[in-house]
Design brief:
The chain has 77 residues and is mainly α. The chain is 40% helix and 0% strand.
Length: 77
C-alpha cells in the first residue's frame, strides 16, 4: 500500500537567471572542380546527408560527454 500523502504547500516563486553559451561546430569538405562539374544531384544530396549525420553525432557526443575543459568544449549533461 502506498504511504499516506501529505498536503501540498505553496511556496514563494523565485526568478533565477542562467547563462547560456554557444559553440560552433564546423566541418569542411574539399572537392575538386572536376568532381563538382561531373557530380549529379544525387551525389550532392548523399554528401550533404552524410555531413549532417556526422555533425549530429558530434553534437550528441558533446552534449552527453562534454567536460567543459578547454576553450571550445561544452559542458555536457
Amino acid at each position: 500500500m502506498p504511504a499516506a500523502r501529505s498536503a501540498a504547500t505553496d511556496s514563494t516563486d523565485a526568478i533565477t537567471s542562467i547563462s547560456l553559451g554557444a559553440y560552433k561546430l564546423i566541418k569542411t569538405v574539399e572537392i575538386t572542380a572536376d568532381v563538382d562539374a561531373m557530380s549529379i544531384d544525387a551525389f550532392e544530396t548523399w554528401l550533404v546527408n552524410r555531413l549532417v549525420n556526422k555533425i549530429e553525432k558530434a553534437i550528441d557526443y558533446a552534449v552527453l560527454n562534454g567536460t567543459g575543459s578547454g576553450a571550445n568544449q561544452a559542458t555536457g549533461i
